[in-house]
Design a protein that fits this description.
Elements: E1 2-6, H1 10-22, E2 27-32, H2 37-46, H3 49-52, E3 57-62, E4 73-76, H4 92-109, E5 114-117, H5 122-133, E6 140-142, H6 145-160, E7 167-168, E8 171-173, E9 180-182, E10 188-189, E11 192-193, H7 200-211, H8 213-221, H9 227-241, E12 246-255, E13 261-272, E14 275-279, H10 286-303
Helix pairs in contact: 1-9, 4-5, 5-10, 6-7, 6-9
The protein binds 1,4-dihydronicotinamide adenine dinucleotide and oxaloacetate ion.
């Protein structure tokens, strides 16, 4: 199993590290445009192999896509991150050009690859890859919901005073400060609905804290987060590589599901060796449907800025 990660910055390196530590891939290629940067990150990570006990071979390369040839999975993290006070959508001007060039170079050398898009604004970047590469929809996956759901569980556990392992929940919709749809109605603590334990007001607070999870960290760090994003990507890569058939909310091209068409947005999917093996449609409440609709309008507005 060969995995390429483009962008050896904060998220790309964290993602490569988690993939290696989980020890399921034979090879990870880190590629960056900055001379020597990916080589340095790869060497540093390889020097953790004996300490962390993994056999994955990590190599770094400066912008030479021949090194990525025949990758089973390619992750795109190249592009700029936001600074405090910015939205993800403001990154489109620079990141769209980067994602378009990178995805085309990757596919040239790995025509059968599955692509995971991380660069922001992620739903629109996923749509861009869909529109410009011609890859089948099950091989284009946007990572956002897996991270947002992890943050949702963190906030739920905080509100409940419970360990995170007691909690389950999912966030669908757009990966943006206003577009996320945390499904508080369905969240559970050991299969008991969290509404049994938390007031509506507290649940609304959890929902709002979850939606601004990325902005909160950006304000604290001065740039956006990387540990949980890297871990979330590694979870998707592992589900595909190990054919786990796990369910994650991912940005996926919808063709009628959730009443939406011609848009990439977060919905639950089953991930296996073929990429997206199924889009799972769950029954939403009227309020959730309205929130999903509103979320899709936000994503479409950003998609409208693409020069397609
Ligand atoms: N979808 C999600 O849930 C998340 C998305 N992100 C997004 O991921 C992206 C990366 O974030 P960070 O790693 O924190 O940024 P970073 O600045 O640490 O790393 C980005 C790397 O991309 C490289 N790069 C730029 N243009 C390139 C090109 N054409 N080819 C190859 N490499 C190129 C840069 O040299 C840099 O090393 C940002 O757009 C950020 O908003 C970040 C966290 C979560
Ligand atoms: O907040 C950001 O800009 C990066 C990101 O998507 C996240 O951490 O959720």
């Amino acid at each position: 199993m060969k995995v390429t990660v483009v962008g050896a910055g904060a998220v790309g390196a964290s993602c490569a590290e988690y993939i290696a530590i989980k020890n399921f891939a034979s090879e990870v290629v880190l590629l960056d445009i900055k001379e020597g940067f990916a080589e340095g990150k790869a060497m540093d990570l390889m020097q953790t192999a004996s300490l962390n006990g993994f056999d994955t071979k990590i190599t770094g390369i400066t912008n030479d896509y021949s090194a990525t040839a025949n990758s089973d999975i390619c992750v795109i993290t190249s592009g700029i991150p936001r600074k405090p006070g910015m939205t993800r959508e403001e990154l489109i001007g620079i990141n769209a050009g980067i994602v378009k060039t990178v995805s085309s170079s990757l596919i040239e050398h790995s025509p059968n690859t599955i692509i995971i898009v991380v660069s922001n604004p992620m739903d629109t970047m996923t749509y861009l890859v869909h529109k410009t590469t011609g890859l089948p929809k099950h091989r284009i996956i946007g990572m956002g919901g897996a991270l947002d759901s992890a943050r949702f569980k963190y906030r739920l556990a905080e509100a409940l005073g419970a360990p995170i392992s007691d909690v389950d929940g999912m966030v669908i919709g757009g990966h943006s400060d206003t577009g996320m749809v945390p499904l508080t109605r369905l969240a559970t603590r050991n299969s008991v609905l969290v509404s049994e334990f938390l007031s509506e007001d507290r649940l609304n607070q959890v929902k709002e804290d979850t939606k601004v999870g990325g902005a909160t960290l950006t304000k604290l760090l001065g740039t956006s987060a990387w540990y949980a994003p890297g871990a979330a990507v590694s979870g998707l890569v592992q589900a595909i590589a190990c054919n786990q058939k796990k369910m994650f909310p991912c940005s996926v091209l919808l063709e009628g599901e959730y009443g939406l068409n011609d848009i990439c947005i977060g919905a639950p999917v089953i991930l296996g060796r073929n990429g997206i093996e199924k889009i799972v449609e769950i029954e939403l409440s009227d309020a959730e449907k309205a929130h999903m609709q509103e979320s899709s309008e936000g994503v479409r507005k950003t998609n409208g800025l693409l020069a397609l």
